[in-house]
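Lay summary

Proteins are chains of building blocks that fold into shapes. Our project writes down both the chain and a compact code for its shape. Here are two examples, one after the other.
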Amino acid sequence: MTSLAPHPDRLLPADPATLDLARQLYASVKDAPILSPHGHVDAELLLDDQPFGDPAALLITPDHYVLRLLHASGVPLEQLGVAPRDGASAVAEGREVWRALASHWDVFLGTPVRYWFETELHDVFGLAEHPSAANADAQYDQLAAALATPSMRPRALFERFRIEVLATTDDPASDLAAHAALRDDPSFTGRVLPTFRADSYYDPARPEWRESLSRLGEVSGIDTTTHAGLLEALRSRREHFIRHGATASDTGVPDAGSEPLDPADAARIHQAALRGPVSAADAAAYRHTMLFESARMAADDGLVMQLHPGILRNHHRPTLERFGPDVGHDLPLIRSSYTEPLRPILEAFGTHPTFRMVLFTVDETAFTREIGPLAGFYPRCSPGRRGGSSTLPPPSAATARPSPTRSASRRRPGSSTTPGPSARSPPATTCRVGWTPATSPRSS
């Protein structure tokens, strides 16, 4: 058995000349409260405060980065607890899923996923050995026993990790009832803020687009069968989110194109998409105009506009058709760029007093190539660092404290400016840039 003892300096620079300074800097912030501006924990999880169940259902099956590496190693998704849509094949039980991870533990060497797991297993659950085929059952039992204790319930973990602010990711049609209930609960002292995520309404090529429009129309009471109606409904729901404490929107798109269409062309594509499939060119043009319109809304209502371009969702169509989305095949599109595609938005709103944009990337070279120069000119667009899409910072000695809640609701697309008291109180720098490595365990 190999001892599990994560080194306290494991994410600090190895250079002796800078290591001491890095230790000092880390020591100055390691006990600070967590202000988490982006994540995918369901607010109802904190509202209900029920014990987490099976360890594999918490730590493996919902995590598409864990699924990705295990699938690449030849482990079928069914053996990782992912149920096929047709129900045609059996799904492994939690203990079997954990055995699959333990027997493939070495494939995570050198990855951010391994850093997360090592710290969680050691610091949160108290495991003393690396997972292996030999100790898989014993560790599974230890994890299950720990999760059954009151100290591992969601609210207890929220307090243990000193989380002050937790921003969730929410569909515009959400009633945000859980957020309101938490806000009004005198026994809960944290702040859980919704974040407006409207991706499914921007791209008429997405299979759920028509259904999303119908649901939004029902919730808003506005006819979304027209393009103008859709925009009005989205504005209405943004106001609903702001009333519930939202300070930001969040958008993940294949590219950052933002050229606005003539209203007549947007209306034409909208109607065509309601009738059936539209061309790839029309779908992209519609998506670009929707991104522009979302920037216009951000300038009007003050919600910080978080943008994650450059991800190709559901790369392997057979897997999508059999298992659905978020099972490991969202892949980076490194050809994505910022300078020219975002020009329409920045020309229109880049100096607007209430517009703020946060840019993220899966390509670290984009910082110096494009994002830095953009932030160097536009006062409403600047870089904002993110380590991943988890609701918590990476749990390492060089970052912050871990939490099992990271995986409770993360099978979807994630940091940006810290949510403040008001969406209309802009920070000194108003466009942030964040890098999420393609191998990060928590990217958007």
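And here is the second example, written the same way.
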Amino acid sequence: MAARTARATTTRGKKVVAATNKDDAVTPPTKTKASKAASATPTRSRSGTARGGNGNTSPYFDKKAKGKQQQAKNKAKRNETDDELSEPTGLTSESELSSSDSGAESAFDPDSDDEPEDDEVMNGDESESDAEATPKAGTKRKATVADKAKAKWGRGAKGRQSGASAADAVELGSDDDDVELEEGQVVAGRIYPAPKTGQVPAGQVSRNTLNFLSLLQIPENNDRDWFRAHEPSYRQAEAEWKAFVVPMQARMSEADDELPVLPPNDVIHRIYRDVRFSSDKTPYKSNFSMSTSRGGKKGTWAGYHLSICPRGHSILACGKWQPSRDDLAAIRQNILHDPAPFRAAIGAPAFVKLFGKAEPGKKGKPQNIFGHSDELKVAPKGVDKTHKDIDLLKLRSIVVFHHFTDDEVTAPDFIDKVGAVVEVMTPFVHMLNDYMAAPVDDDSD
């Protein structure tokens, strides 16, 4: 092998080894146009601040080579690229959005993070047009699939953690929308619009309301993320329910003249569940409901409870559910003293037609006022187990239920149907209130 001698020369303070043998000459590495653009083009970090290109300048090229002529050449190439492309290179086109993001909620994967870290730089093999297409400060850009995948709707949202305020969040009606994002905006989640058809006049319940409640019955939907995304539908259903409650109270007051007509908020129940002392942490109820009595929703009197729940679970109940110790003691004292009014109320022909015979059902099956889960298994303290009214004395919750189908709930005459049932329930409710209002003295005969 031919002997070689080497000499060291210095270029810009760095040593370069050059060989004297022609066959073994060291060829200086060359850069492609893409790598030049990657090193020279400023990039934008996640925080939105501009960052310069690669700071390591090659020792084989002089900085002065990039003069006015080179800048003019690059500008001409950029203009040619803009003419050929319908949108900036590197952003997802509309067709790609429609194919990869077809409207499923799973498209917003909270764990995905396709955005580069702050300390990352462009790869050397990236094309010049991609590097030149970095949006400038103050310009708009289209939301990409990566932007949407990065969105976190609810718990631990990346978009929320990045410092974007709620006012900067972009609401999406569908995944196929091309959303123009201002500087500093992020896609925070998806808001589903409320139904635009199927509305009903005040005093009726629409299919839209039952559909929303049926979706809440699905365990995967009954959480805060899903509820926030469908809040417009909830607000529409809630307004419809409040508009229904006003004429409903008026009809119930016609059947029972002891019932007042109150503002909707004073009789309806909130959709949010109290989960503080419950093993079931489901945050939302899957029904709309209202309660009223001679003392209003929170009174201690026997009253009425109307609940709208899809799939045939809508009910109208009346009576006293789990009365207090004093109220229950007063009812039992009156039963021991004179059970006739009680027997007459639950044995009335119209009452029996709706709720069954006034006797315990076979094998503990619920019937009339009997068969509830909190009913005593043995006689109350101080009462003989062979007492002739022991079936009444074992009761704790004294209530009856009437069920409605979904078709009955959405029918225009639903208020009249509820009012007709209230008329049958009224004597029973008045009897319970009389029993609680006039406890019998133990020394009376």
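What can we say about the second shape? Residues 335 and 393 are 7 Å apart (CA to CA).
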